[in-house]
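Hey, can you fold this one?
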Amino acid sequence: MTAKQTVFLYLITLALFFLIDMVWLGLVARGFYRRHLGALLSPRVNWAAAALFYLLFIVGLIVFAVRPALAQGAPLRALLLGALFGLICYATYDLTNLATLKDWPLVVTVVDLAWGAVLGGSVSFLSAFLGRFLLRL
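Sure. Predicted structure:
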């Protein structure tokens, strides 16, 4: 895969991730987090930290899920690897919070772990599928 193809694949993955996660955070789960985390939530989003997470997470999806699946010609492999990567990343955050923060809700951890797996898997699959089609890999 060329550098140009890798950048294109990164941009596809980033766009898919942002779109799907914004639907989740903005529409589906907004009330859930307010209800369970209430006073812990900042009144303003730290967009620099959020952007850095997105940029790094996409690198992980590309390296550990999308490119290996494309190399094998198996977009379904991207689904499984991406789901595992998403689960591990979201578990790092949520299980650390559960272990160290007073009154961190278990239900938030469970929902976030599921979401991390769904998000990582679906974005990786769609990226591998579109990458294979658009880049003719």
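Helices lie at 3-28, 30-37, 47-72, 75-100, 106-134. Let me know if you want another pass with a different chain boundary.
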